[in-house]
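Morning F.,

Quick status update on the modeling queue. The single chain you submitted on Monday has been processed. Sequence for confirmation:
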Amino acid sequence: MASLRHMLFDSDWTEWLPIYAWLIEHEEGAIVVDAGETSRVNDRGYRPRWHPFNRMAVQFRVRPEDEIGPQLKLRGIAAADVRQVVMTHLHTDHAGGLAHFPKSKIWVNQPEYESASGFFGKVLGYLPHRWPRWWKPAFLPWEQEPWGPFATSYRLTRLGDVLAVPTPGHTPGHVAVVVRGDVNIFIAGDVSYNERLLRAGKVDGVSPDQAVSLATGKSIVDFTKREKLVYLPSHDPDAPRRLAERSLLIS
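Structure tokens below.
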């Protein structure tokens, strides 16, 4: 409760932070991780003003050209050609761009979808009434195939070089995506807001269970004793540099 109170009432704000979505170019078809936010997020009535998080704890600055569809087009990829979209979770800054992917298979963890749906989802800060009406989510069919510290995983490619893994904490149904290789690329969603906080064992104010968040973060850090890993959270301004330089998370 103290973390939640600080999040809502602290008068200090961070600098503007990015909302990253990630494109994996793969021979079996393009995979996108998270859909980013929509420029409509600041339209009158888009977010319920009765919710204290919307009134007191978050601001957005997203232009139409910042949305994921135009951003993919700038990189020579049509959103319609994206084969799979994996949602790390369904908070609006990750799900606002879902409308760009009517032809894609959109994966989500079933507990995340159930938590985010309906009026109770709105109370928790989700915007289920803004999801596209045509969206029929594909639920990740977890397999008893461990990867690193994770007891279950799901292969997103036949080659098994792109995996989804459960990373509960920020939300109970949160997932991450791993691109496997000599250096593993760990697309972390909101496991932590940046790499420094992961190393320090700091938990964000949204996480409903600090112990679960800490356990997930510690398992990722401990895993770096065995394999090389580049850690890419969605709101870390330094993530693109670490990706380009293959800068490793080291325990």
